[in-house]
Design goal:
331 residues; mainly alpha; 16 helices
Length: 331
Amino acid sequence: MARDGARPAYDPAGHDGELRAALQEVRTGRWLSMRTLLERTTHWWQWTQRTQVLAAGAAGTDVIRAWLAEEPDSVPATVMRARVAVERALRAHRERHRRTHELWIEAWDMSQGAARAAPRDPVPWVCLLALAQLDREQSWEEHRAPPPDPTLPPGPWGLLEEAVKRDPHNREAHHRMLQFLYARSASGRPAEAAAFAYLAAEDAPPGSALHVLPLYVRVERYRRDGGREAALDLHWVAEDATREALHAHTAWFQHSAAAERSPLDLNHLAHALWGAHRFADAARVFDAIGPYRTPLPWAYRTAVPGDHAQAAQVFLQARARSRSAAPPTDG
């Protein structure tokens, strides 16, 4: 990829041009492009990623309802209905909306229905995992299953098992488990999440996005410690931080296909390598990112974490610093 100085923009579709086109249609209330795209999606990693992005775009519309009105027996539409219901429940939870519990139960029912309609699909189980974080007290029995390792707490491990049974090393399923563990440790350091991330990375094959999980935990630790007010750059040049960054670069980036890389994973890896002063490696990841920056983790390196303009500036500074220390490559 050419090394240009263009200012990158956030696009949830990233390098997936077909997804971008379908998402634009969804936002205007049209569903035919979404149906066609999902019919052509044959890999579980891509199906999981595309349904997640499309659901975020559809959550503020009635597009899935319109699709089901025309095709009530459509399995993809049934899965998308669950996806959208989960997205709405999670948004309500973040906003502390009074209908959160109602939307949660509705999303759980729809996810169960999607699991019955699509028994080989990991996404309904990913949906159920996503909802587990709302049960912070672990009142539901399925959220108190015994852990697979003594370093981990009871949790929705059965839901994770169902997802990975259908798609081993499913990226989103593991991130949803991380979110559940973060919710458990909302007032403290995410030690349980770190243990889970390391175990998942150890078991992952070369090229798996699970090798990037420890970088997310490190960012979360930094955020909870107060962001740029706590230890500043020393957090990122520590020996274990550098080791995590290099492992993700070697085990994931160097073995993964460009089309399969999540923009969020790429941005976390570039951020970690830049923070560890591994500028030549970071430059190659910045080249892979191209024009599709994500707000996180860059926003956590700003004075105001919610300021996307500042986050973009941090990204540009990190990219420029990394490229200035790396040899040029042909575009």
